[in-house]
Amino acid sequence: MANALGVPSPDKAAYMDNVAAVAVDYKQQLLDLLQLEPGLKVLDLGCGPGADLQAMADAVEVSGRVIGVDVDPTMVEAASERFRDHPQVEVLLGDGHALSFEEASFDRARMDRALQHVADPAAVLAELLRVLKPGGLLRIGEPDWDSLVVDGDLEMNRAFNRFVCSTMVRNATVGRQLARLARAAGFEVDEVRTASPVFHDFAQADKIFAFTRNTERAIRAGAIERADGERWLAELQAGDFLAAPLMFLMSARKPL
Ligand SMILES: C[S@@+](CC[C@H](N)C(=O)[O-])C[C@H]1O[C@@H](n2cnc3c(N)ncnc32)[C@H](O)[C@@H]1O
């Protein structure tokens, strides 16, 4: 949501690169769960600027293929530029609701924090089922924005989460729904696990969770009183800060 409620958003590619630099642990877990081997063909749907493509390309080696797809041309441009000299990596403009690939094209597919933004998660999962080979593995990592824990004023934490869930993120609680949605789409679900990085630095966390920007938006939307919002932000900046998001990592497979 660019410039929502008159509050400018940061550069999207820089935001995603920043998250990737901090979220090393859950991203490594998601990569390990993919069980990549040389020669496999992998789809990264909603690849953004391509933060995860290199690790996948290394794992499938030159005999494999990594295809990144994103609906945003600026992301495709950024990722394409990065992987210009990597023959086994291709980045394509596309929408997860209607992928341009043949049925059973991929051995593996993944999404990392992209299903939270799509118009119809069930339709995207149906597409992923179609383009995976029988027995192919799907791995998805998504947050649960209603479960963002911030030490301090509990009512403000709740008001902030309510605003983000109702106004800022389309499918803000899709993380907790992953297994149910995947089964409904026809996948066999092997595992759901959680990952919760803990942040102790307000400035670092603010870049990812947008406490300052989204509190200002909530104030402008009438969801939070200005005095309460400004006091909460001042306390978070001044105090012994702690915040932790809840990430769900789901492992599923297309039935044989
Ligand atoms: C939060 S970013 C995550 C990017 C990347 N997966 C990462 O971990 O750095 C979500 C991405 O999903 C993309 N996206 C949103 N809806 C999409 C759709 N319908 N089809 C394909 N990509 C989509 C956005 O353009 C954005 O680049």
Under the CATH scheme, which class? Alpha Beta
* Topology, number of strands: 7
The residue ranges in which pLDDT falls below 50 over 5 or more consecutive positions are: none
List the ions, cofactors and other small molecules found in this model.
Answer: S-adenosylmethionine
CATH architecture classification:
3-Layer(aba) Sandwich
CATH topology: Rossmann fold
Any idea what the CATH superfamily is called? Vaccinia Virus protein VP39
* Mass-distribution shape: globular
Q: Over all CA atoms, what is the radius of gyration?
A: 19 Å
Overall pLDDT level: 94
Which assembly state applies to the chains in this document? single chain
Describe the sheet with the most strands. Answer: 7 strands, mixed
Individual helix count: 10
Strand order of the largest sheet: 3-2-1-4-5-7-6
Distance between the termini: 39 Å
Number of domains: 1
Please write out the topology.
Layout: H1 12-22, H2 24-33, E1 41-45, H3 53-60, E2 65-70, H4 73-82, E3 89-93, E4 106-112, H5 121-131, E5 132-150, H6 154-168, H7 174-185, E6 188-195, H8 202-209, H9 211-220, H10 226-238, E7 243-253
Parallel strand pairs: 1-2, 1-4, 2-3, 4-5
Antiparallel strand pairs: 5-7, 6-7
Helix pairs in contact: 5-7, 6-9, 9-10
The structure holds S-adenosylmethionine.
The site of S-adenosylmethionine (SAM) has 21 residues, from helix 1 and strand 2.
Protein name: Methyltransferase domain-containing protein
Domain Methyltransferase: 42-136
Pfam families: Methyltransf_25
